[in-house]
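Notes from the pairing session

We agreed to fold both candidates in a single pass and log them together. This is the raw record for the first candidate, unedited. Please don't reformat it; downstream parsing expects exactly this layout.

Candidate A
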Amino acid sequence: MKKYLTIVLVILLASCKSKAILAEGNASNTISADKIIMSYDNNKIDFSTLYIKASAKYEDDKQSQNVQAEIKIKKNEKILVSIRILGFTVAKALITPTSVQYYEKIGSKYFEGDYAGLSKWLGTDLDFQKVQNMFLGKTLDDLHKGKYAVSILEKLYKLQSNPDAKTDKSFFFESDNFLVKRQEINQPLQDRTLQIAYPDYKKYDAMILPLSLAIDARQKESKTNINIEYKNISFNEDLSFPYNVPEGYERIHIDKI
């Protein structure tokens, strides 16, 4: 069950895969953290709903799996993710600001809960806004609530939070539109690392969105990689969000997954 739930949580955004990749700049001159954050804020995300189709490859230490995903987002309200293999739905999740619901047909199990247990299981604090931001190529954290050191690494601007023994967070931006290229969360005491990378972007009429997403999660001796390609996206349609757990499914608890 952990495999499909992980895919649901990190498959987050999609768009037309095309040659219209947005040009990006290389960082060269050091600027202030405030300037980087202000420039990043200029990338507004304006929509009421998104309808997305994506393909993804999941890989861990034991297996590799190719899946398709249908993602429906009602901004700031709910996200419905359906995972399919060979056209058949094998898992579905409904995510809201207060709850996470999920069921998987393989094994006939379902989960209902909040973000507290889920955050503990994944090893990083989660809430609805962070999940939605990951969909959109935005930073998981509100940059206005932290203090950051600025440097240039691999031709990207790097904002690094004040690291402590528990958590070290870094955010990387290109220099033309200050789009997020990579964000990292390191927890040395738990020997745990999460990296989310956005290889390329596309500009639409009202916004810029990622074309692809790569997740690299490592914990002690295990690792998980998820690479996602975004196929089709449409904006501001009248979407439905059907979610019903089939009868007879067994409820599971996050500490037992």
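Candidate B (folded immediately after A)
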Amino acid sequence: MTDAHRSALRHWLSDVRESRDHPHDEGVDPCGVRWQRHAEGVLELTPATASRSAEGAENDAAAQPGYRYDAILSCGIHGDETAPIEIVDGILRDIADGRLTLRERVLVVLGNPDAVRAGKRYLEYDLNRLFQGAHAKRAESPAVQRARELEVIVAQFFAGVDGVRRTRRHVDMHTAIRASLFQRFAVVPGTPQHSPSDDWFDALGAADIEATMRTEQPSVTFSYFTCARFGAQSCTLELGKVAPFGENRLENFSGIDAALRRWLSGGEFEARDDGKSPQPQRFRVAAEIVRRTDAFVLDVPADTPNFTPYPAGTVLARDGENTYTVSHPEERIVFPNPNVANGLRAGVMVVPE
């Protein structure tokens, strides 16, 4: 047995690089956490206390697992977004070394290991545009196969192990490809059936998330998939700008790192040690600018930061005879990108809630 297999958590990143031939290993880490690798880069972790009680007293009500959440923590959906990978790696290493006690059942997902190895956002197609069944509309490729695989694993994970329905939560961590007027912000999906609660926004604020953008626009992102299909409290976190491994200023993300550690160890996002309850600036999505044809033009500079404001009457996009004109007193643009494929969004317009 290799050192990586003796401690799947302590050597998580090396496991990813070495597990292609053995994607379905399982065992108990030296810290007592039970782990199961469902696929390359995907580890399901069960708290040590839950494992011991279930094995020691199957029929005892007191032996029921005490965790409250079925939690998904994902990163590396885009391979060059390294800060979230380093944050997750640090959490797993501290669990393995006994510095952090895991008390929640969690699925840890490194979304696109091939792109991580290559240091690229994606290889053939953007993985975060392939969920909610969108992969079925694309030609077969490794990205399509990965999206389908992750959807199946998530469905199995949320089905649970003991028939108990727990709160479902998914934190999908990214970094942005451009500067932002808010360095740390969250996209919070919702549907008419699964509207995000104020408590979820409060929790994100306590994690030092500076702004949130609520959207009920149907989407093909990973976080929208878990919200729409499974009713999870989901979010896509954008944490600063893309940087190579080792060049991230992780101190800028200490708030979300601390919140994740509180949560996974049995506490709550909002239970800060300093007792403060910072609130994010809340926005909602007013519209999406979609590129329809090759004639599309987005009239914003290439270096425009996320959340740049524009006043009413500003023409931001032209696509043949169609235009997008700001209609609210002020709208802010997020994720402006004129170089997307036809049919995809080239920008998101938000207004204050």
